[in-house]
Amino acid sequence: MKGLKYSQTIVICIVFLLAGLNAAIAQQRKGLLWEISGNGLKQPAYLFGTVHVYDTTLYALPQLPAGLVDKIDKVYFEMDYSKIDQAELMASILIKDSAQYLNKLLDTGAIASLKKLSASSPMLKMMGNQIYAVKPFILMSWISAGGTKAATVDFELFKMMVAQQKPVGGLETVKEQMAAVDAVPLSKQADMLAKALDGRFSLEQQVSRVTEVYTRQELDNLMTVLNDNIPVDASFDDAIRLNRNVTMADKIAAILRTEHPLIAVGAGHFGNNDGLIALLEKKGYSLKSVPVLIRKVRE
Q1: In this predicted model, what pLDDT tens digit does every residue of 199-218 receive, in sequence order?
Q2: How many CB atoms neighbour CB 135 within 10 A?
Q3: Is the pLDDT higher at 235 or at 6?
Q4: What InterPro entries has UniProt attached to this entry (predicted)?
Q5: Cα-atom radius of gyration of the chain, to the nearest Å?
Q6: Residue 143: alpha-carbon gap to chain centroid
Q7: What is the 3-state secondary structure (H, E, C) of 199-245?
Q8: Contact yes or no for 100/133 (Cβ under 8 A)
Q9: Torsion angle, CA of 84/169/23/205, rounded to 10 degrees?
Q10: Burial of residue 1, with CB atoms counted within 10 A of its CB: 0-12 exposed, 13-18 middle, 19 or more buried
Q11: Which is it for the CA torsion 68, 70, 71, 72, positive or negative?
């Protein structure tokens, strides 16, 4: 489980970044859990929005409605965490050309900021000097997902399903997710990382802000908070959000032909007219928000 946890932590950070782009908000949608019906379904399936950094000192983990797990036959995550090859994953996040390492792309001020943040981030500290060989987008996600109190709703749900011997699967592979990252040149990624480092934001404050908005179940506002300190280039939106939403919607529709699962992906994929909710509706499905209880731990 230790190796799985390590691989999963890296994957969660990647997913956190890939879910973090915003689009023009045409309609505000609220709700983390959506019942999928219609379009020939004999029984409902469910879509659940997760978040990849979550402050459990402020709120308890979201509670799915009683009996819901008994109604489904499988759970799909963005990736199947039980089938992640750690060696393949590590290789995919590293820069292959040493001439493109970050200590050669970033200025001295950005490098100093990165070293300072590394001291407060377990993930960055663990990398040591190899941090300069990590792709800038991945570092941006690690920075934003840093802090010792950050839990991941995805992995907590995954562990619960494994404990209940529920079959699990994934909508994407590591290779597919990393292809989105690689769509942007390293020099442009480095520029965005430098801007993020210049923000001098607090890791703990970022986690707390994301948690607060997530618990209000405001899908579009969550994207605004994610973007506050992650200046992702808008031209990358097609590759890492829009195209992935379309692909995931197609895969979900294919799954629904034979299964009635719970599909748990980042809530950042839900909102707007190009999110999963709207795309599944365009395919003929009906989606209805189902209340989810999130208990506050302290004021």
Answers
A1: 655 667 777 888 888 898 88
A2: 24
A3: 235
A4: TraB/PrgY/GumN_fam, YbaP-like
A5: 19
A6: 14
A7: CCCCHHHHHHHHHHHHHCCEHHHHHHHHHHCCCCCHHHHHHHHHHHH
A8: no
A9: -60
A10: exposed
A11: positive
Place of tokens 């979900």: 252
CA distance 193 to 95: 15
Q: What is the pLDDT of residues 227-282, one digit of tens each?
A: 555 555 566 666 667 788 999 999 999 999 999 999 999 888 888 888 899 999 99
Q: How far apart are the first and last CA of the chain?
A: 34
Q: Rounded to an integer, what distance in angstroms lies between the CA atom of residue 94 and that of residue 96?
A: 6
| Chain position carrying tokens 């309609």 | 27
Nearest alpha-carbon partner for 62 in 167, 205, 209, 217 = 217
Q: Are 78 and 172 in contact (CB under 8 A)?
A: yes
What band does 22 get if pLDDT is binned at 50, 70 and 90? very low
Question: Rounded to the nearest 5°, which phi and psi values hold at 237?
Answer: -60, -45
3-state secondary structure the chain: CHHHHHHHHHHHHHHHHHCCCCCCCCCCCECCEEEEECCCCCCCEEEEEECCCEECCCECCCECCCCHHHHCCCEEECCCHHHCCHHHHHHHHECCCHHHCHHHHCCHHHHHHHHHHHCCCHHHHHHHHHHHHECHHHHHHHHHCCCCCEECHHHHHHHHHHHCCCCEEECCCHHHHHHHHCCCCHHHHHHHHHHHHHCCCCHHHHHHHHHHHHHCCEHHHHHHHHHHCCCCCHHHHHHHHHHHHHHHHHHHHHHHCCCCCEEEEEHHHCCCCCCHHHHHHHCCCEEEEECCECCECCC
pTM for the full model?
A: 0.83
Ranges 11-25, 111-125, 278-292: which has the least confidence: 11-25
Q: Which token pair is 143?
A: 């920075």
Q: Closest Cα to residue 263, out of 180, 160, 159, 169?
A: 169
